[in-house]
Structure formats: C-alpha cells, structure tokens
Write a structure and sequence with these properties.
656 residues, alpha+beta, 15 helices, 33 strands, 25% strand
Length: 656
Amino acid sequence: MSDRVTLGMTLELCSDAIFGSGFSIPGGEDIAVCQDGEGYPYLKGSTFKGLLRESLENLLAWTGGDNGTAGELCGASGWEGAADGRRLQLTALFPDPRPETPDGCYSTRFFTGLEGGVVKSATLRAASCIRRGLRFTGEVTCDAGDVELLRQAVQGIKWAGTLRSRGFGRVRCTLDDPVCEVERPPLTAIHCIRYRLETVLPVLVTDPGRSRDNSYATRGYLPGSAIRGMVVSTLAQQDPAWLEAHRAALLGEGTRFLDALPVEGEGACLPGIMGFYGEKGSDQVVSVLNQDVAGMKRANLGTCCALEGNTVRGWSASTGGNLRIQRQVGKDEDTRPFQTRHIDAGQIFEGYILLDDPTLAEAIGGAFGKQVWLGADRYEGFGQCSVTTPEGVEAPSWQAYGYAPGVQTDSTLYLLALSPLTMLDDYGEPCGLDLNALAGRLGVERVQIAACSTAMAEFGGYNRTWKCRVPTLRMYDRGSIFKLRCSAAPKAEALLDVQRTGLGARRAEGFGQVLFLRRELLEGVRCKDDGGEKTAPVVETPAVRLRRARYRWVMDRSGELYRDGLSRSQLGTIQALCEKAMASGNTEELLAHLEKNTGDRGAKHAARFRGIDRLIRQVLNAPLEQTLGTPGPDGTAQRLELLCLLFDHSRKEGMA
C-alpha cells in the first residue's frame, strides 16, 4: 500500500530571473515571462520538474544511487499511463506573498550582440525580468519514502529560467514539512454519489476530434472515464487487495461514472441542447424538432444549459491555452512549438456516480481526498482539483427535468443524450439508436424517430490493464436530442429504468447516459439567454488593462519617429536624455536639447525634430490617463518610461 504525502516547496529569487513564456509582446519585450490571468509571474510545474530531474540525476551520480530512480520519480519516455505511487505530482509556483500590483514584480533589460567589438545591427532585444527577492511557493506530492531524497534534490536547484549564463535566475529552493489531510467521514451504502470539483490548476482534457497536428483542443467538461481512472488509480495505491476483490463490480456496467459538468450555483444543469435556432441578434428561439427554421442561425448554448420557464440559459467553462515545445529525444522527434488548450483554474464541476451495488460507495468515496489529479500531464504541473466532500443523494439533480414515478407519460418523447451515445447491433457494430431494442426497453411495440438534432464525434480511451488504446467508437455527441413517437405511451417506470442504467456501449465510463425531457419543458422554450454564446467572462485587472493600453499606444505610433528624417543616433541621444530625466526627475536638459534643435540649427534641421518635440511635450504635459485612455500611476517618471518604450520598439523596427 502506497503512502503519499504532500509537501510545500519554496523558491526564492537571489537575482533577477526570466521564466520565459515562449512569447514576445508586440511593441514590448522580445522575451516575455509566464503570467497568470492577473499579470503576476509564475513558474510552470513542468519547468520546475525539469530542474528537479536534472538536480536529482546529479545527486544520484555523485552519491552512487540507482540511475533508474530519476525515471521512477519524474517519468520516462514511453510511459504507458499506469498509476505509480512513486511518481511526483507538482503544482506551479506562484508569488507568496503577492505584491499589491503586478508592476512591482518586473523590470526590463536590454541586450545587443557584438561583432568586432561594436554593436551588431538588428540585435537589440528587450527582456522582461522578475525582480530579485520575490518568493514563489507551490506543492509536491510524493511517496513518503522519497521525502528525504527529494529534499536534497530540491536544495540542489541553484538556477532557473533563461539567460542563466548572463547571471539571471539564481535561486534558493527548499521543501517544507508534509501537509496533513483531515480525515473525512466515510460514505454509507448508497446508490448515487454526488461530488463537486474545483480546478486549482488548469486541467487538460484533450478533445481528439477537434485537435490538429500541433494544436490540442480541450473538452469543456470532465469525462466520466477520467473520473473512473482517477478512482481506480487511487484505490490501486490505497488498497490493491480490495480493488482486486471488487474489480468486476467496480469496472462493470453496474457502476457508472457520469461526466462532471461546469455548474453555476446550485441548480440542475444539462448539456447544451442542440436544435434551437433564431434570427441573428434576437433572443427569440424555436426548436428544429417542431418548427421550420429555414434562414435562421443555430443557437450555440455552450457546454451546459438550464431550462428556466420559457428561457434556455447556457454557459461554458472558461478555457485557456499554453504554447509548448517538444523536447527532442530522438533525431526524428518533432520539435515544433504546439499549443495545448486547457480548462482554466477556478472552475467548479459537479458529477455523479451511480451504483447498482451500494456497498461500493464507502471505498469510492474514500478515493476522493482533499485533492485529486485529473486529465493529461497531471505529472507536469496540470490537473490538480480540490474536492467538496462526496455525499449520497437520491438521484442526479437533472432528474428534475424528467418524469417522476407513476405520472402519466405521452407517446411523444424527447430523448436527450446527457453523454456521448451509441447502441450496438447484433454484430457488435455501432448503429446509433437501435429502435427495436429501445422499444423493448420501453415496453412498447414500436418506436420511430420523428425528428432529431445531432452531432457525431469519435471517442477512444486507454486500457491500463492491456497497456493499449481502446478502439474509437463513433457516437452521437452529448446534447444530441431525438423526438420519438411510440406506438403507445410507455410507463414512467420504464423511462426511469433506461435513465438509471443508460443505453448502448461503454456505460461504465459514463457513455450512454440519457434523459427523457418532459414535453412541456422543451416545447415551452421561446427565448435564450445571451450569455449562452459566451464563455465565462475574463476579468481584466487594472494592471493588465494598463499594460495592454501601453502596448497599443506604442504600436499606433511606432512608425512616426523616423518619418521626419531623424537618424538612429539622434533618436538614441533623445532617449538617453529621457532616461537621464527619468532617473533624476528633471526634464530641463531634455527640453533644452529639443529647443536647441528646433530653433538654433536652421529650418531644414529643425524640420526633422518638430515631430519628436511635439510628441514628447504632448506626453509630458497631458495626464497619462488621457494619453492611454485608461487610469493608472501617473507622474513624470511614468510618462518618460512610456516614451522610452516607444523609442526601443521603433529603433528595433528601424534596425530590422
């Protein structure tokens, strides 16, 4: 049985550092640092793991340790994805304590190349640096037996980031004491477990159907197969004997791990229902299942929706992206940059686990600790989620949209795919909806599809026992809806039985989950919430807004400085005077230089300086809020700094 512990880790900057993001900022830095959504710097978990691996390999070489230990702790090429109690799980490292504003975290440095002892043309580069003295903290989860080895390896990390050969990135790293988890009361024997997860770090849930050669899309929800994989992995580490004794019941279709959906508040939510159309710019919608929608635009409700009276309200989880580079292992490895999309941190998801055997509830609930790790790259600084205590409930909340036991149903039914769905024919081949089999489940003679609105996608997986990929199945995607006509009205109990057990293939992984929507709910929808076509709003902080405004102002004026014939040396002299004035707070020498060149050197010479004289005086004399169009710190130093940013960018353009 594996005993895993979580330790805090601290990284302190002993010099300025550059945690590169792989991006450059138009009009700004050629080398930009990794920033969170509020503009604060951070160090990626995958980057820290690379530093840790290097330090660990050196430590093992110096002490005569086993060379394979580094691979067991940090992973190795060709890893099949099976759970391993020794694998490290790291978070990203964030500033702690965090400065009041992001601006206090940065300074800008400039570099040039030399050729023959002089500056080489077109080599001026600007880099954003994180100021020395900042402290970054995160967490690492490891096997209890590896704590001391890990502590020594962490202390061996002395440099981080880029441009280390120029003195950047000297750090001091330490590990704190283990963090103790609070024991949770066990679940009782129940048939339905409800849980909530909040993403602490970005979560990568790759969507192969929408991914491309070097761009990986993400799903906007947490698939039931990912939840099942996490539970099985945790139980395999905590109590392998119990897992072996209950493997058939846990992994069979008697235990169904449903998809976890992004939620808003405590209300029930459904996947984004397909089939609503409306006029562009209008909130009014109609359903393609019941009306002619010619000339209308399909309404995109996002990942989830809720039916509220005559309105369907939709929303989606907030997503983001990372630019990454494949580290070359062999000569044929592709080292092109690639982008991965992820679910952002701070999103809340709700999911359910349905059990035919209620005695499994206690063990499954025990797999949900204070935190869990989900999705791809969960050993690379992604996938950490905090857990709200799992609890037993009578049924999933979305059952409120369906039929209650004993009520009178109708011969017209609306079947909604809550998760990807396909049934199999007599030969084991996917066939969409097998209407004869569905009629048998509903206890009626005949079922026909009167209308439908669907989308198709392919879904695969990974078998950890056989260490191979599961063949992909083409299924109706979640949110697909069918209008069915039955030869007679089925009993409500038959509908509830289909909803409880699901339809079709791979139900244990959450596929095949369906809901029979009450007819009056769907047919009563007349409007949609405008928020349904937008993801969760991105909160732009004042610091981010100011930074964006500065770069926009620079880009808008980047071509003006050389337009009147100024040379690079003349502009360089003006910038030097601006920097001198910024340091002293006195602009007299700068203004005297401009007056001399616009009034004492002749009309032809003055014509070259009038544009720059006018620009500098406008910036110095006007409030910075008026210049940039957004509020922020204002003073002579800030105005001169803006001018220097423009000079840097324009000179680089002129040298290119």
